[in-house]
Amino acid sequence: MISANHPLRITVDRLTTLYADVPIAVGVPDESGWVPASAVFAPGSTYLPAMLAAVAAAYQTTHRDLPASFLCHRYNWTVACAAVGAFLIDRRLPSLDLANVAIHLDDQGQGDQIALVSGRFWTSAGDVAAAHPDALIEPSGAIDLTRVRRELERHFEPVIDAIRANAPFGKRAMWLSLADNCAWCLLEFGQRLQRPGSRQREIEEFVGGPDSRLRGGTRLITIEAAGKSHAFVERGSCCLSYKLPETGYCHTCPLLKPEQRAERLRNYVTSAS
């Protein structure tokens, strides 16, 4: 493991304090089950088909697209949390080279955690940690959300190619799944950090750039319920969970009509109040 006073470790510790369910380590833990992401998503990998089969077995499904959707969603949510969270907290960006990520496989063979193999991170010259040996200084002067998006796109290009080669789940659906999870990070972490500014504008700028692979239907919607306004991510992708018996559609599923989504979200807020 990388020392507790390492700048990136400090940032990730702040992230997991902010949102405890983010399964990220800095440095690969000294335990079995860790596999390089570059091996998982390499052409001809034996890991990825086994992981897809493990997801299918866990959900007792014969649909080949559904395990791909679930695996893609879980992995891209975790990586998005690492990238977007580190940016929002400390204006740092972990190195997202595929070779710098490892995936932990649980007893069933599913990925349940990621580790950043090294402590390398991008930052600005004004960062107090800019002189650290693992700091990579952003040439343009400052890390911004466009840079975060482009690094995520670079990371996920081979990931999405590999999943598509192993399952009938479309590449466009996977890019939109990543967009949805990045938007969720911007909304959830931004609210927890009480950051000023418009989440709607931030998300639109993040996913909607002219060269963005994430452009689609992802946006924020506001629901009035229980006497308050509540913001949610209206997704551009469908996770396919409706194919599971007795599961049905998610509250924000794009396959639902807008009025159906709004009614489901109002009921959700009311029941949770």
Largest sheet: 4 strands, mixed
Instruction: Summarize the helix and strand pattern as letters.
Output: HEEHHHEEEEEHHHEEH
Which runs of at least 5 residues are low in confidence (pLDDT < 50)? none
Q: What is the residue-mean pLDDT, rounded to a whole number?
A: 95
The helix content, as a percent range, equals 40-55%
The CATH class is Mainly Alpha
- The CATH topology is Transferase(Phosphotransferase), domain 1
- Would you count the extended β strands for me? 9
The first-to-last residue Cα distance is 41 Å
What is this entry, summarized?
The chain has 273 residues and is α/β, with parallel strands linked by helices.
Q: What layout of secondary structure does this protein have?
A:
Elements: H1 7-18, E1 24-26, E2 34-36, H2 37-40, H3 47-59, H4 65-90, E3 93-94, E4 101-105, E5 111-116, E6 121-123, E7 135-137, H5 145-166, H6 171-192, H7 199-207, E8 219-225, E9 228-234, H8 258-272
Parallel strand pairs: 1-5, 6-7
Antiparallel strand pairs: 2-4, 3-6, 4-5, 8-9
Helix pairs in contact: 1-4, 3-4, 4-5, 4-6, 6-7
Structure, explained:
There is one protein chain. This protein is 45% helix and 14% strand. With 273 residues, the chain is an alpha/beta fold. It has a single domain (7-217), classed as Transferase(Phosphotransferase), domain 1, CATH 1.10.510.40. The N and C termini lie far apart (41 Å). The model has no long low-confidence stretch (mean pLDDT 95).
